[in-house]
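Lab notebook, bench 4. Still working through the backlog of constructs that have no structural model yet. Next entry is a single chain of 128 residues. Request: give me the structure tokens for it.
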Amino acid sequence: MVEHGTFYWNELMTRDTGKAREFYGKSLGWTFAEMPMDDGAVYVVANLGDKPVGGMFQMNGAHFEGVPEHWMSYIAVDNIDERLELALAHGGEVIRPPYDVAGIGRIAILKDVGGAVQGWMTPAEMAD
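Model written out:
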């Protein structure tokens, strides 16, 4: 069961998912499954055995210009819209407003008061 306030998902933001797949596959024994996205992109899910352990997202477009490759963490929250209001009231900054991913959940990207970027999400399984 997903718990509010816990780290829920990690994804590699990269410019070359093929190169990353080769590295993590050979180094950690991960296997990969592709998940088509609504915008035509392909999200890569990393698995260890039959357990999903993270994802890979290829950074394309001008909005990623100058952004270094990095691992992005997502924290599960019970209600993304209410929690973002609280975050804003306490000095946080929303970088990407909430958006829905079918079957996955509702996600937003924000900065905390120190500038650390993270994702918050209400996983679909929490919203049910």
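Notes after review: The longest helix spans residues 17-28. The chain has three helices and eight strands. Flag for follow-up if needed.
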